[in-house]
UniProtKB/TrEMBL annotation:
Residues 190-233 are annotated as: Disordered. Residues 195-213 have a biased composition (Basic and acidic residues). It comes from the Bacteria. It comes from Glutamicibacter uratoxydans (Arthrobacter uratoxydans). This is Septum formation initiator family protein. The lineage of its organism: Bacteria, Bacillati, Actinomycetota, Actinomycetes, Micrococcales.
Amino acid sequence: MTEQPIREALDAAGRVPSEQDLDTLSRQLNRPVRDVVEIGARCVCGNPLVATTAPRLSSGIPFPTTYYLTHPVITSAVSRLEAAGLMNEMNERLGEDSALAAAYTAAHEAYLANRDAIGERSGTGAVPEIAGVSAGGMPTRVKCLHVLVGHSLAAGEGVNPLGDEALAGIAQWWTKDKCYCVGAWDTDSAVPSQDRSRHVKTQEKAEDPEVKRAARAAKRAAREAAQQAGEQD
Ligand SMILES: [Zn+2]
């Protein structure tokens, strides 16, 4: 479909998410992760930096944002760049610098090519609803630096010029040659899991008879009130 060569930071074995990876992602995000099919990038220690989501969720919903930055040290560093106004500055440069604009368009195409490959590998297949739609504002705008940095980490340097720039911009807080994982997320309490939400649902069901009883009582009271009102007329 596209002539872009696929560039990915991790090899096939490195991309496979282990149970431990999924637990780490849930801890990093403090919520259970769903529909993660691969790991897009890893810390030198092996921990995930980027979660790769299939282009179609198991619920059937098309999902254009393939790479999600999960490492708290990186996400907060990138948020600092956003807060400092880097996106506005990048958008201005995209309007003036045609070489940068062309490289950014190529990054958009590379993103789509990677997503197609991930869709094939994960069994999702083609997702026509989001054909040509990437993420983060690509190909002409910068709307989310986290998306661009996630792409840069998953594709490797030299694919997304603005993602690479943002990565260089967070060097005082995070660099790819060092591990910043210790203390970056809660490793003591239970892994945020979907079991917990099932448990909550079970509790809600257990309360159902009570709720129904209360509703019946309210209806009865309303009926009686209406009858009394009728008698007064
Ligand atoms: Zn690490």
